[in-house]
Design a protein that fits this description.
alpha/beta, TIM Barrel, 4-stranded mixed beta sheet, 16 strands, 17% strand
């Protein structure tokens, strides 16, 4: 047996004589005595240790075969995937006036019609083939809860169809949270609502400046009240968007959540991300000059580590470093805009040339349009981070370059950040094998 190609080995300062092993292929972590690492290298590892390390993806019999398996992972996943995933954009309207709104000048009084909604249901019925066992829908906007009635009608139609197939239907909502009243939660929960993601941009002073109502009034306390009133009915995750000049104040939001009774046991998780710029072809508001064009800017490494540590320190859940894929590479993932036009990623909604069809004509071949499999090259094949990247984010390449012709390589960012994130998990929450 040999060490996996998709393995990172770090020193463990808190336990001298041990090393920290992390599998980028499986997202697993092991604390291993240095002498046992030498046992792997000289083939003297005990059978029980070998079995455990093989199960966790740390050692393999054939590294070249392992590379071929990872290289073909997405193809195999698409062949066997039991799920169908849709993002449904219900409208491009909103009751907020966010300073960095990602929809920019696309927003307006634009709502999904009855005809388009019926077309969505028909599209799902066509795509939900016999091998499918689950359907997950993300309701998106604009502000999706301005279309609560549409969520109800679509969900009822889908739920009855999916359940008749012996399969499961779940949906999530990405919302500003201002309309998530208890009455709304009571209406949606029985229809398959799995999770609500609500954006709060730090403490009240920052949030209300960045995400006010259209009237100019602050929205922070309305959102907090709604979460307090509904978190016993529906699962709620909190996200937030920070900038280089304000991220250090975001832990104050965590303190406020705790003092407001929104303790870790009442929330599904918390995750903060940097504000991103829009592409030159669709800039954010003219007066907004912030945001970044890459998650790989050096200050983001510092911000990510600081904020994630604060989240974990206070006991809230947040995503672990793990293998991940982009929905663009999944053949069973689609975005349906309010007008019935189809895309492969919600970030490309309204971007000229990135439609893959519509509800009437169906899905066109988008292999070249979205550069499917762009990561299938010699450089990526040798990269130990491939399972955590698969070419990165097409949209971020588009923001920087105006096209999706190149890779969004994450190697430098992962080199700079991954060790700290893994050690945070060990310190605050992870059950790590100790051998």
């Amino acid at each position: 047996m040999r060490l996996s190609h998709y393995l990172k080995v770090y020193p463990c300062e808190e336990k001298p004589g041990y090393l920290l092993l992390f599998s980028t292929k499986q997202g697993s972590t092991v604390l291993l005595k240095e002498e046992k690492l030498r046992s792997i290298e000289n083939a003297s590892l005990s059978p029980s240790d070998a079995a455990l390390l093989a199960r966790l993806g740390m050692i393999v019999e054939d590294r070249e075969a392992e590379k071929r398996t990872v290289f073909g992972f997405l193809d195999d996943f698409n062949e066997r995937s039991p799920g169908l995933n849709l993002t449904i954009v219900l409208n491009l309207d909103c009751n907020f006036a966010c300073t960095y709104c990602y929809e920019g000048d696309m927003k307006g009084n634009l709502y999904m019609s009855d005809t388009t909604a019926a077309g969505v249901v028909d599209f799902i019925k066509k795509k939900f083939t016999e091998n499918k066992t689950s359907l997950l829908v993300d309701f998106y906007g604009g502000e999706p809860l301005l279309s609560t009635g549409r969520i109800v009608s679509i969900s009822r139609a889908i739920q009855s169809f999916i359940e008749s197939k012996g399969a499961s239907y779940r949906f999530t909502i990405i919302t500003n949270g201002s309309l998530l009243t208890r009455r709304v939660a009571e209406k949606l929960a029985p229809l398959g609502l799995e999770n609500v993601k609500i954006t709060i941009d730090g403490p009240a002073e920052i949030h209300d400046r960045n995400r006010p109502f259209k009237s100019g009034a602050g929205s922070f306390h309305t959102i907090i009240h709604n979460i307090q009133e509904t978190c016993d009915l529906v699962s709620i995750s909190i996200g937030g968007n920070y900038e280089s000049h304000n991220y250090e104040k975001f832990p104050l939001l965590l303190d406020y959540l705790m003092s407001s009774g929104l303790t870790p046991d009442r929330l599904r998780g918390v995750k903060f991300d940097p504000v991103m710029k829009g592409p030159d072809q669709r800039p954010l508001h003219d007066h907004f000059k912030g945001g970044c064009t890459s998650i790989y800017e050096p200050w983001i490494v510092r911000a990510e580590a600081l904020l994630r540590e604060e989240i974990l320190k206070k006991g809230y859940n947040t995503p672990k470093p793990r293998p991940m894929t982009c929905m663009i590479e999944s053949k069973d993932a689609y975005v349906v805009n309010f007008d019935g036009v189809l895309y492969k990623c919600p970030a490309f909604i309204g971007q000229k040339g990135f439609s893959i069809g519509d509800l009437q004509t169906g899905v066109r071949d988008y292999t070249d349009l979205y550069k499917i499999g762009i990561w299938k090259n010699a450089k990526c094949a040798e990269c130990e981070y491939l399972p955590m990247c698969f070419g990165g984010c097409r949209y971020m390449v588009y923001v920087r370059e105006g096209n999706v012709e190149t890779l969004d390589c994450r190697k430098d960012h992962l080199d700079a950040s991954l060790e700290a994130l893994i050690k945070q998990d060990i310190k605050y929450r992870a059950k790590v094998e100790n051998r």
